[in-house]
Specification:
Largest sheet: 2 strands, antiparallel
Structural class: mainly alpha
Radius of gyration: 16 Å
Distance between the termini: 50 Å
Number of helices: 5
Helix content: 40-55%
Bound molecules: iron/sulfur cluster
Number of domains: 1
Strand content: 5-15%
Strand order of the largest sheet: 1-2
Length: 101
């Protein structure tokens, strides 16, 4: 969003706005600490955290932000992606690490 108090010649472009938004922080209930939006966009993986829309909707127009970053198809893919519960996440991490029973 444009800051009306900022002179026009110092207003950031879309990329600058995105970088500003990536620095915003919230408390992550999953990690128990403060994280940036930039972290939530790629937490130890190439895709955004599956909870990003739930965590950020109160702080910015997250769907618009995601559509700008991922494209409309990417946003739809994120919305339609099946959710994993905590155990599913742990099992996926163990599988990625090559740990078997
Ligand atoms: S989107 Fe994921 S990493 Fe970011 S605050 Fe929410 S649960 Fe934590």
């Amino acid at each position: 969003m444009d800051d009306p108090a900022r002179p026009a010649d110092t207003k950031p472009g879309a990329a600058g706005l995105r970088r500003e938004q990536e620095q915003k922080t919230i408390h992550c209930s999953r990690l128990g600490g403060t994280v940036t939006l930039g972290y939530c966009m790629s937490p130890a993986q190439d895709a955004p955290c599956e909870r990003i829309r739930d965590c950020w909707w109160q702080f910015l127009d997250i769907d618009r932000y995601l559509a700008e970053c991922l494209g409309p198809e990417g946003l739809l893919e994120l919305i339609n992606k099946p959710r994993r519960d905590r155990l599913g996440i742990i099992l996926d991490v163990l599988k990625e690490l090559g740990v078997s029973r």
